[in-house]
Amino acid sequence: MSESVSLPNAGRFFEIRFESIGGLGAHAAGQVLATAAVVRMGLNGAHFSSYGSEKKGSLVRSFVRLGPADRPIRTSAPVETPDAIVVFHAALLRNPATLAGLKKDGTFIYNAPPGLVPEELAALPRTARVIRVDALGIAVKEQSRPNAVLLGTLCGAFPFLDAGQVLEALSEEFTGRHPEAVASNERAFRCGATQFEALAGVGRAEGDLPATLSEPAWGYETQPIGGIIPEPGNTVWNDLSASRTGWLPVLDRAKCIHCGLCDLVCPDLCLVWGDGEDGGKFERELMGVDYRYCKGCLRCVESCPTGALAKEAETPGLADGLRVPLFPDVIG
């Protein structure tokens, strides 16, 4: 174990919140970071995650709290006012809770390819540091996962987090169970530590952002009369786009024979069918995909006999540009 390092905010804990969805490795990232800090860097540390059903696409928050060796950590409360927020999936930027509580001098790291800055980030503090890294693109290239990339970026943004020690802890985590992933994780981590972009002039808010409520928005005293469900998860208003982990099925209608095999295997019924063109060969034709309901499982791509449905990396605006609405008269 190395000598204890000095935290950048003397006198208080350094707190990090990972915002993610199931399947991207946020829980493992928090576990690795806290282990490296405690076992290898001589810090006090605590880590735990908050999530519902353990399935791909469900919301996950992972919390890491670090302190000097002589200061015990006596709280296990969620990190509500973080020094750093790390966002694993760009779809989460649409949720104000993702940004909530960031300090005015905090750091906001998010996973996205180069391009336009999402307008939602204007809600960040004007004085906050904003960092963008194409974690998914790097992970795909290096045959790793976004968590290794984002851990590297976090260490690159905060030099007190010893990159060598964190990388050793990451490798140790996988050596026993998945030794074949160690080398690819190391490459992804090193890319993440250097291949990120600091963005200027993003936030417009003044001061610290308010924290989210620690209590549920609805309870037995505050729920709407009649047991109304304000945000139903099983109706046309449901949105599965945050379940995707970087890939979309994209339809080439010129190759499609409208056989319907894709529709048989689609678990979310997100494929849109319409009447065939006048005099056409097919009575019903596949028109496209409503990506609002597509979680990116790619079963349709696997089953397509002609290659009409192909796997493509999801870039900003691609889903909105290609989307064919299932319910055009109900929602936008």
Detailed description of the structure:
By secondary structure, this protein is of the alpha/beta class. It is 24% helix and 19% strand. The chain folds into two domains: 186 residues, Pyruvate-ferredoxin oxidoreductase, PFOR, domain III (Pyruvate-ferredoxin Oxidoreductase, domain 3, 3-Layer(aba) Sandwich); 82 residues, Alpha-Beta Plaits, CATH 3.30.70.3270. The chain has a seven-stranded mixed sheet with strand order 2-3-1-4-5-6-7, with helices on one face. A two-stranded antiparallel sheet has the order 8-11. Strands 9-10 form a two-stranded antiparallel ribbon. β4, α2 and β5 form a beta-alpha-beta unit. The radius of gyration is 22 Å and the shape is globular.
Topology:
Layout: E1 14-21, H1 26-40, E2 44-51, E3 59-67, E4 84-87, H2 96-99, E5 107-111, E6 129-133, H3 135-142, H4 146-157, H5 163-175, H6 182-194, E7 197-199, E8 247-251, H7 261-265, E9 271-275, E10 284-289, H8 299-303, E11 309-313, H9 318-322
Parallel strand pairs: 1-4, 4-5, 5-6
Antiparallel strand pairs: 1-3, 2-3, 6-7, 8-11, 9-10
Helix pairs in contact: 1-4, 1-5, 3-4, 3-6, 4-5, 4-6, 5-6
